[in-house]
Amino acid sequence: MTDKLSNDLRSLKIDRTQKTGDRSARKWIVIGSIALIAILIAAAVAFVPTGTVLSNFGPKLREVEAVTVTKQAPNLGNVVLTAGGYIIPRRRVEVSSKISGRVEELLIDKGDVVRKGQVLARLDDREYVAQLAQAKANKLAAEARLNQAVTGSRPEEIQRARAAVEQAEATVRSTQITLDRTKSLNKSGVLAKQALDDAQSAYDVAVAQTKVARENFELARLGPRKEEIDLARAQLAEAEANVKWLESQLDNTIIRAPVDGTVLDRLVEKGEMVTTGYVSGRGAKSAFVSLANLKELEVELDINESDIPRVHLGQGCTASPDSYPDRKYKAHVREIAPEANRQKATIQVKVAIDDPDLYLRPETNAKVNFLEESQEKAPPQESRILVPKSAVVEGPAVFLLKDGKTRRQPVKTGREFWGQLEVISGLTEGEQLITKGLEGIAEGERVTVKK
Question: Residue 123 has what pLDDT?
Answer without folding.
Answer: 94
